[in-house]
Amino acid sequence: MCNDGWINISSERVYDANIFTLYKDRTKCLRTDVEADFYRFDTVDWVNVLAVTKDGEMVVIEQFRHGAQDVKLEIPGGCIDPEDVDPVAAGVRELLEETGYAGDPGILIGRVQPNPALQGNYCYTVLVENAYKASEPRMEDLEDIDTVLMSEEELNQAVLSGELDHGLVLNALYFYELHRKGKL
């Protein structure tokens, strides 16, 4: 079995950034006896928030993403901070900070590993229903976010047109659909 077929020979910290640490691991495949270097990112867990108003509108955001060098349509979310009690608390906090929206107590509806080939962290999906505008956003110094309310049909069209193409957001929408069908 492949899980028993690897030995980590060494691990070297290559680079520290404020949101991740890059490691180079020297690893040996026991099946072939071949050694190679593998790189991995050590990063904190993340949270995404699906916030739905009592009228069924989704709270979505638009923000510039440096990796894509473009403004992306997404849902609120971010890093789970050390002071967050759990992913739900982090999601509720991120929703309020980025959009000024609050709502019913959040519930956890999903968890995935964003890219297990390079990362070991998880991204959680939190659902907040009956969302309403509670305050003005309290964005961080390097955030510039616009909040948009979209109907389910508008959101579906954004997915179909490619306007909304963020993989973790699409994943969150799938968890939401499963939740609505009573599968979660």
- Helical content band: 10-25%
How confident overall, as mean pLDDT? Answer: 95
CATH superfamily of the largest domain: Nucleoside Triphosphate Pyrophosphohydrolase
Summarize the helix and strand pattern as letters: EEEEEEEHEEEEHH
Number of helices: 3
**What fraction of the residues are assigned to beta strands by DSSP?**
35-45%
CATH fold label of the largest domain: Nucleoside Triphosphate Pyrophosphohydrolase
The number of domains is: 2
Distance between the termini: 31 Å
Radius of gyration: 19 Å
Shape: elongated
Count of β-strands? 11
- Using the 3D structure, state the CATH architecture of the largest domain: Alpha-Beta Complex
CATH class bucket of the largest domain: Alpha Beta
The biggest beta sheet reads: 5 strands, mixed
**Any low-confidence stretches, pLDDT <50, length ≥5?**
none
Kindly name the structural category. Answer: alpha+beta
In brief:
It is built from three helices and eleven strands; from the N terminus they run E-E-E-E-E-E-E-H-E-E-E-E-H-H. The protein has helices spanning 87-99, 152-161, 167-180, and strands spanning 6-16, 21-29, 34-42, 46-53, 58-65, 70-74, 77-79, 101-102, 107-112, 123-133, 145-150. With 184 residues, the chain is α+β, with helices and mostly antiparallel strands.
